[in-house]
Amino acid sequence: MPVPLLDVNAQNLPLEDELKSVFEKVLRSGRFILGEEVDAFERECAAELGVKHAISISSGTDALLIALMAFGIGPGDEVLCPSFTFFATAGSIARTGATPVFCDVDPVSFGIDVAAAKAKVTPRTKAIMPVHLYGQSSDLDGVQALAKEHGLKVIEDIAQSFGATYKGAICGGIGEVGCFSFFPSKNLGGFGDGGLVTTHDDSLAELLLRLRNHGMHPRYYHSLVGGNFRMDALQCSLLRVKLRHIKEYAAGRVRNAEYYTRRISEIAGDRYILPVAVEGMGHVWNQFTLRVPGEGRRDALRAHLTGKGIGCEIYYPVPMHRQECFANLPANSLVDCPVSDRLAMEVISIPVYPELTTEQLDEVVAALASFPPTEAMSKILITGHRGMVGSALVREAGRRGDHEVLTAGRSRLDLTDQRGVFDFLEEEKPEIVVIAAAKVGGIHANATYPADFIYENLAIASNLVEGSRRAGVPRVLFLGSSCIYPKMAPQPMPEDCLLTSPLEVTNEAYAIAKIAGLKLCQHYRAQHGLLYHSAMPTNLYGPGDNYHPENSHVIPALIRRFHEAKVAGAPDVTIWGTGTPRREFLHVDDLAAACFHLLGLENPPDWVNVGVGDDVTILELAGLVAETVGYSGGILTDPSKPDGTPRKLMDVSRIKATGWAPVIGFREGLAAAYQDFLSKLSSGEARL
Fold first, then answer.
1. 213: Cα within 13 Å, side-chain hemisphere
2. pLDDT score, position 390
């Protein structure tokens, strides 16, 4: 049973009728900026939080920014804040022109370490910004004492902790200003961006109100420069509905956190460090964040949970003092944050939202229980892990749960750098290396840069194969392509037709490099007795594909074109050629499963084709994609455009003889691919 990290509809849809009624009320009122809905929401928030003033703001980030502006903080000033936090904390300080000074955090509460902050106070320090992370307060007694000693303003960042308490007092009324967020994932989650500032100070509240509306008072008279930090009346009205349920939501999160604490404690061993509700700090559990000690173990757990359909996320993988945009800050801002560094390598958050059922909680616990201890796992290096194939392999490794997954981005490991590859493999010593990395491209790229294609792919293969031998890696799986076979190969193409006639000239350089990689593995196996072997997949599609309008492959290109046609209401879509060429397509998750199947064989073939053993015409494919997308217009062909090779079909009898077969049906796979495209559209990774 898949369990999402967060399901906002589970909370919002039960309120659908009331929310629609409120929407209609605002619509008919015609009052969308400020007004009675905003005033009422602010009064209700002030009552809920026990503060004198609550002022709605356009976002949680803007709440931090306006608080800093109200205190006149700007260039030349310094503000103490934790390094282990969301970017908005530090970014808002930087936007004023002030300098964020990053302090280490407490490893139990995740709040700012007051002793570490005290060590970084200078004459330029004007404020301290404690962050109540994951739903739990910072040490506010310590913060207040430090602020009093040095005359600092205290700005509470409570974005994740609406309703959290410190020694019985609700956070937001302890420092001079409290700053909240109503981002949809928060405990009081809105329907877009929104925020709040709170204070007991009348004059400060008046200043915040002016700053919220361009510094204007009275109308069109500006004694200071503010901004447009207003929260929409519609957002306020919708949140008023949810605010009435906030105690119920908080109780649900506490209930789930207590259930996790009891159940996970039973199976944790030395694998997990559980979060703690510190005495005197009323935790509201915006996140249930585990720590997973051990090099690479957190990332291996993430892959494991993802493979089992359990939503999880890393908040946050890079602390502020390691962010590129802050690299030129003074040394005092960037040093002495070892706990933040450690947490960034260990933390992972699991679902804890209040609507989770016991069955869903048990599913999460079962997935955590099935994550093997370090000594039971073999380390597998998956190169090219950000690509479609590599990411599928990482998912499959996580689903299986019996490998510690090792990956390395280009910034850490350049696969064309022989010495760097040799040193990396010698240091990490994986038991398995999967070579899924490659320089790839379409016909135009292959024709324009053939030397680059043959050199870089030869370098990747030779460096990893020889480096693995030198480091004592017992097993290597090299991934090639169906393009290694001759242009006029018999159909379906058997493995034995390799090198029997000329290659397709348009991708000859790439194909030669892939053939060389295959032969490297074959001959290293023969000469050195190492289990180095290869897999040659057919045309692939699935999650992580490239939907670029100019250089994507046939399925993602058709998905994009038919979606665009549906959106535009186009009467028909024209495809290149006659539509008669036949092609075979394999879902990338089936390929990943096949790879791990081959890695489980004691004596696999030197190389083996991986495909489905069936094909469709391009016209039939277009019809299936149109049906999947929901496009009902016509499909035309353009015979003036080239068809390409009449047929490309793999002979898969060799791999089937080992006991493997694909399991993802074509229609099912196309539907998942379309959802992947829609997801990329919504996230901005793909654009129309």
1. 16
2. 94
CA pair distance 282, 95, nearest whole angstrom: 32
Position 425, amino acid: L
Identify the DSSP state of 425. H
Res. 163: pLDDT tops 60:
yes
| Cα 94 from Cα 599, distance rounded (Å) | 50
Per-residue pLDDT tens over the stretch 81-109: 999 999 999 999 999 999 999 999 999 99
Residues 6+ apart with CB under 8 A from 295: 345
Determine the pLDDT at residue 412.
83
Q: Distance from first CA to last CA of the chain, Å, rounded? A: 34
The bridge status of strand 153-157 relative to strand 99-103 is unpaired
Alpha-carbon gap, residue 665 to 586, rounded angstroms: 9
- In angstroms, the CA 372 to CA 357 distance is 25
Please determine, for residue 688, whether its predicted confidence score (pLDDT) is greater than 60: no
Report pTM: 0.64
The edge-to-edge listing of strands for the beta sheet with 582-583 is 616-617, 582-583, 647-648
- pLDDT per residue over 474-522, tens digit each? 999 999 999 999 988 999 999 999 999 999 888 899 999 999 999 999 9
Measured between alpha carbons, how far is 432 from 441 in angstroms, rounded to an integer? 27
DSSP states of 148-165: HHHT-EEEEE-TT-TT-E
The closest of 114, 46, 40, 30 to 80, measured between CA atoms, is: 114
3-state secondary structure at position 365? helix
Give catalytic residues, as residue numbers.
510
For residue 334, give both structure tokens: 């960037």
**What is the Rg, in whole angstroms, of the alpha carbon atoms belonging to the chain?**
29
pLDDT per residue as tens digits for the range 111-145 = 999 999 999 999 999 999 999 999 999 999 999 99
Distance between CA 289 and CA 313 in Å, rounded?
9
Q: Is 634 in a helix, a strand, or coil?
A: strand
What's the CA gap between 195 and 171, in Å, rounded? 15
In DSSP notation, 503-567 reads: PPGGGHHHHHHHHHHHHHHHHHHHHH--EEEEEEE-EEESTT----TTT--HHHHHHHHHHHHHH
Q: What is the pLDDT of residue 549?
A: 66
